[in-house]
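Z., the sequence and structure:
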Amino acid sequence: MNTTLRHWKEAATLILAAGRRLAPAGLTSRTPEAPGSPLASSCGRSHLPHKSAFDYDVLLLKRSSKSGFMPNAYVFPGGKVDSSDFSSEWLDIFKSFRDSPRFGLGSVTQPAESRPPMFATDRLHLGSPVPGEVAFRICALRETFEECGVLLAVSKQEEKGMLLKGIEATRATCEVSGLCSSELSRWRTLVLQDSSNFLRMCRELQLLPNIWALHEWSNWLTPVAGYSAARFDTAFFICCLNETPQTLQDEREIVRCQWSTPSEVLQSYQAQEYWIAPPQFYELSRMCRFPSLNDLHNFSSQRATEGCEHWLPVVIVEDKHHISVLPGDKLYPPSKTSGKTLVETSTDPQLEEPQDNSSLHRMVILNPYSTNLQINIKPKYNHLLPVIMPTLTDDPQSQL
């Protein structure tokens, strides 16, 4: 972990999509529109797929009302990096992969100078022989196990197969042969008490955290105008499971586990049934391009080799709402310095009525339950444009 950071703490989160045991009849595989298609060129607008169109659900966890960071919010599993995630002892766990680039994760075509700092940082200079891409995946897997009891791991018997498959591994499974639920429950309790016990569990049970099932998706940083004093530089990974696993909240940080389709989550958010943070809103809107789990898995595993963009939202405060400006928008600052994302007050009339030829990449947040995406740029690194759902009203007061 990088203890030299002044403004953020490194973190990792996992977007977990799981197939339903009985998929909707007649479901066909779909492919999202290419960036140059009419749909993509019209700011990504399209109809939000009905929940019956999806053959998978995505996992969201409700944070405790006592949480110091985003209380009561529904979030993806994840959390802050622990020093044990970068422990040199992981070299023994992954000893068969030490000579493979990035422990068998494969290469990323994104130039090193444009890689997000959390991935580009030389961890050897910080005292760890474990690459950041590996440690952040370990963090995401550990936090998922802690928060909802889902363990994504492979046994030593499967190690040779993983060596051959690497990042091209098939969709993950939560069934670890030879382990009973009571044993996993005991270890989960120990990991909740001390994060370093995750490494100890893997060593004693001869397990490898399934880092190969996690595909690099995005990198979000908490802006200054966040929801608490805590600020995080977070790697987002995505993983597709064949079937929905059993979950159990930890009753400490997490009070509820919720499996829903991406469109259900967005509609429930808009209906004020529960609250999701802007990054979750954006990523779920992207996932609505793929009602098919197979398409989502194929896209995410192939796209991950291209890398991702470092997103630090810049917040502009208006009288009735605020705007979260993202890279590529015409108002995004040309350079970010020392993490001091400026919270400004602007009277730019184009914030209300942007011109068609303006470069737009922003979230207009009317109130906590009404977010409007304005996007007409081409995503970098072969990524997806979100499906943009219509807001229920343009009057922010009517939903307060």
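The chain has a mean pLDDT of 82. The first helix runs from residue 38 to 41.

Let me know what you think.
H.
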